[in-house]
Amino acid sequence: MKPDFSATGLRVLVTAGAAGIGRAIAGTFAEAGARVHICDVDTAALAEFATLYPAITASVTDVSDPAQVECLFEDVRKHLGGLDVLVNNAGIAGPTGKVEDISIEDWNRCIAVDLNGLFYCTRLAMPMIKAAGGGSIINLSSTAGRLGFPLRSPYAAAKWGVVGYTASLAIEAGPDNVRVNCIQPGIVAGDRIDRVAAAKANALGISIEEQKHRMVQNVSMRTFVTAQDIANAALFLASDAGRHISGQAIPVCGNVETLA
């Protein structure tokens, strides 16, 4: 039987959905037939998103604030009438530095967005997904959630935490027909990586092209991935084609070997 990659009829919430990976995920689900609601903290990105996807509803939400998450889910109920799929995409890079030089405030902020926010959204989404007869929760981790990442300990700790949370929740929610997985993106091409490469190239006195070449030397396939690659994986996991996949941490990275 031909696999069904359709999202027709699914009601989907994507956090941090106005730009980057989130935008690609939201757009891909909408184009596959889903009804989609997004949230983001960036009002300018939300305004631009609205011009591209006028049928997709949106909320201004900082997922690290439980009160704002409560308001988000009121909007989800109003606009979607229920929920089948939650994509926990919101995250920040956190501080860079040796652990003794990282402030408590910077540590707490990274954990608040990257891990606590995921919990705040999931605890409200789960009853809605169960009421729908089951569905899918997709958490965004990172290659930093399977490898050590020196000087980025808050981010790595949060992203490893996402993996443990995913595995535990998959066991807990499986009897209710709720699948829970996480995706671990590698180096994602886009504006952010372009800025990182430009800054590093300038510091080293080399071209941006040379710096990008250096960046992929620890990737087995010697390539960046795209936001669309991540969106494709999310759609597969939420579709009928992925109906028996749960509890997994799935790298979409070209096989990143080490992080430095």
| Percent of sequence in beta strands | 5-15%
Using only C-alpha atoms, the radius of gyration works out to 18 Å
- Strands, count: 7
The major β-sheet equals: 7 strands, parallel
Q: Between the first and last Cα atoms, what is the distance in angstroms? A: 44 Å
**How many independent structural domains?**
2
What structural class do the secondary elements suggest?
alpha/beta
Question: What is the level 1 CATH name of the largest domain?
Answer: Alpha Beta
CATH arch. level architecture of the largest domain: 3-Layer(aba) Sandwich
CATH superfamily of the largest domain: NAD(P)-binding Rossmann-like Domain
Which stretches of 5+ consecutive residues score pLDDT under 50? none
Q: Examine the coordinates and then state which fold CATH places here, giving the name of the CATH topology of the largest domain.
A: Rossmann fold
How many helical elements? 8
The string of secondary-structure elements, in order, is: EHEHEHEHEHEHHHE
Q: What is the averaged pLDDT score?
A: 95
- The share of residues in helices is 40-55%
